[in-house]
Amino acid sequence: MNEFSILCRILGTLYYRQPQDPLLVPLFTLIREGKLAQNWPLEQDELLERLQKSCDMQQISTDYNALFVGEDCRVAPYRSAWQEGATEAEVRAFLSERGMPLSDAPADHIGTLLLAASWIEDQAGEGESEAIETLFDEYLLPWCGTFLGKVEAHATSPFWKTMASLTRDAIAAMWDDLQEENE
Q1: Does pLDDT of 1 surpass 60?
Q2: How far lies 80's CA from each of 8, 107, 149, 177, in Å?
């Protein structure tokens, strides 16, 4: 697993899974203990330190649920909610064509898209950098800036405000890397 895959996997997991999910305990332990920064491939030490200081699980869970869960959530985590004419089916078809196993959960969730980028990177054969570039260019970048801005505006916890900034910077850095690879 390379740095690109690790970034996408960590960010995707934090958005996709409810904070109280037992699978997230090791990740939140790394954040709380300041150990995530040791293996973080980007220069985001200040943001990672802010995450560490704001690791109150009750507050994180309450804010996650208010932000992303249910029909009355403050910030819909789905591409189809932000991009005119976008459908979940488009994303599902794109990921299925690449052989990604999908559940019944919406494929256009921000977490799913980041996890998909990690999965595609890990499965990468010849020409798969093009698939990742398409994923970012068509299915993630057109709406994630607006989405992350709304997360910052509507989050009540410092954790999710910081996650929005961290995610924005990480996605921009990964996109720059993808562009450099193709030049």
Answers
A1: no
A2: 20, 10, 17, 26
> Mean of the per-residue pLDDT values for the chain?
94
Alpha carbons 60 and 111: distance in angstroms, whole number:
16
C-alpha 5: how far from its chain's center? 11
Neighbour tally for 20: CB within 10 Å? 14
Residues, the chain: 183
Count CB-CB contacts under 10 A for residue 40: 19
What does the pLDDT look like over 95-133, one tens digit per residue?
999 999 999 999 999 999 999 999 999 987 655 678 999
CA distances from 3 to 13, 39, 113, 140, 180 (A): 15, 9, 17, 19, 15
